Amino acid sequence: MKIASRLTILFLLIAIVPTGIVGYLGYDIGKRTILRETTDHLVSINILKSRELERWVKGSKNSIEELAQRPLLREYASVMAATHNMPDPSYRRAHREILENHLKPRLRYGEFIELFVMCSPAGHISASTDEKQDGKYRNNRRYFIEGKSRTYIEGSYYSPTLEQPAMTVSTPVKAMDGNTVAVLAGRLNHGELSGIMAQESGESSTQDTYLVNTFNFFVTEPRFGKDYVLKKAVQTEAINTALSGKDGFGFYKDYRGVPVIGAYKWLPEFRMCIITEIDQSEAFAPVMRLAWIAAGSVIAICITAGFLGMFFSRKISQPLVRLAEGAGEIGRGNLEYRIEIERKDELGDLARATNEMAAKLKQTHTSVENLQKEITERRLAEEALLSLSARQEALLSAIPDIIMEVDSNKVYTWANQPGIEFFGEDVIGKEAAYYFEGEQETYGMVKPLFNGNENVIYVESRQRRKDGEKRLLAWWCRVLKDEHENVTGALSTARDITERRLAEEEIRKLNAELEQRVADRTALLEAANKELEAFSYSVSHDLRGPLQHITGFAELLNKRAAGLLDEKNRHYIKVITDSTIRMGMLIDDLLTFSRMGRTEMMKRKTNLDTLVKEILREYHEDTSGRDVDWKIGPLPEVYGDSVMLRQVFVNLISNAFKYTRKCDKAEIEIGSVCSESGEMCIFVKDNGAGFDMKYVDKLFGLFQRLHRTEDYEGTGVGLANVRRIIHRHGGRVWAEGEMGKGATFWFTVQESVISVS
What we know:
The structure is a single chain. The protein folds into six domains: 174 residues; 105 residues, Beta-Lactamase; 83 residues, PAS domain (Beta-Lactamase); 90 residues, Beta-Lactamase (2-Layer Sandwich); 80 residues; 158 residues, Heat Shock Protein 90 (2-Layer Sandwich), CATH 3.30.565. Helix 2 crosses helix 3. The longest helix is centred in the first third of the chain and has 66 residues. The C terminus is likely disordered. Strand 20 and strand 21 form a beta hairpin. The strands form five sheets. Strands 2-1-5-4-3 form a five-stranded antiparallel β-sheet. It has a five-stranded antiparallel β-sheet with strand order 11-10-14-13-12. A five-stranded mixed β-sheet has the order 16-18-19-21-20. It starts with a helix and ends with a strand. It is of the alpha+beta class. The protein is elongated, with a radius of gyration of 50 Å.
């Protein structure tokens, strides 16, 4: 191939490749930038529209709640609910007053297209701004059922009565005694909802925002539809995804079948989704124009390069090589490169044009980078602003206290929602002293704040609530200053402490009464203890004398008349003697039981292991002639009364020793285990007579015995005494057993365990 042809082809390639690459990069960057801006814009529109919807609904709820809380409306509603008689003069007067002075004036604000009152419990419409609705029953409608107990909004639905879409908000109307006598309901102006969705469409000719309910019906009129609301169902990819509870954006065909870019958002509180779309053709129109311009530029450059290459190929082979090398360098992305050809002909012009093209490409590349950086910074700033706004709204909504701002003249300039709910919607612009209840000296208390001498001051003052009730508020006031440190006002937070002060006063009264009652009960208890001590003394001395006489004279009779008495009479005397001895033991045990309940406890560190070993040494002589296998495990060291705890072990070991008397080999085990809850449990176990578990509840009762006296001696006081001692130590006691297979007695001492030996 000739050099002219090669130079021509090479020249064409050098011109086409860089231009095409730059054009494609510009197209791709522009497309992605427009796509990101478009999706961010659509998502922002959804967020703004959903907030407008929330504010609109909240305003409607506040409006109808305020109307329902008017004293006159509540009074007239009570009259209509009580009479249920339209010809009655009081009913007609109440009906007229509600309509003329309350319902119809509220329609002028444009929030509602109809307001009506339904009396409870029948649910008939007693008064309505639409005269055709008077007397009709709505007891089965959800806005009546739910409206009896709370403020309720019934979502968008088609009303056969109005022959148009409607949304209804209802709230209870309570009588002065707090009982619900009626339900106040209002049908919202559905056109305002469509108007909210249609606002701020900007210069776009295809941008469209609308709402769809869970039945896939339009809730608001779309831009390219007519009479679609609650009449036309729609199925698109975005709507199906949004109704599944997801938020996002995508590319799909809308309800017209037109390809769009759409953003969707699920609104759970309204059971609806919001969709904002724009035609793809409109969104990508700037990119398409850029593509056509780039294509035209490439074609023009190619044609020009071809002619110039063929015309100058024979004369400028060497400069053309340099030019080609320079163009190649520029095409590889080195936009700083410049072709050095000092010529005044067309080749020099071409070199200079190539250099200028590189400079413009560099400028274009820099502009695109700056544009992308600016877009990114703007998107981050918008996201930060939205996040900050959301946090501020959440913070203000979460604060239950009253927050008020006053200027230097002590006039309210701002209030949060709790402040408006307390003082009323007209609080802004009023002087703080307007709400004082004999508390004008409060100004003197906060004077240092407005003089700039103090930054924070705490005061308590009585304020008049919007319903006229006087309440005690605790205020924390903080000074506000400008950049020159001049006092401009104060920001104050308040909390209603009326009930707290009443409760504190009531507590003081109750404490005084309680102290007096404790003193009275203490005196009664001391008197009862003295009587019990006197009774114990009487039992100990007065009952023992007769018993000793019976025992003594029975023994004398047995000695002196031994030769005159037969075997049967001697048996009678023996029964008398044994019974008096048993009676004496019973008295001793009863006195011991009584003293255990009254004796002052002397708690100290007690080693149960040492205590049990001392008791067993005392039983050493009693075990002679019997085969007893003692198993003594480690026992804990506790805090308790050692004398009382000794009595517990004496009674339990005595029982075990007594009820194993008939065993060939007695086995008695004493030890401790730690329960799953970490509680130390102490036990005394034997293999003796045992007992029936169905009588376990009687086992620790006073004078309760589960065995005959002829088989096993005893008074039935020992285990009752054990339970009393353990209970005084804050522990518990229980038993397990089986007839003929022994018994196990358990107890715990509530005090902390120090160690286990």
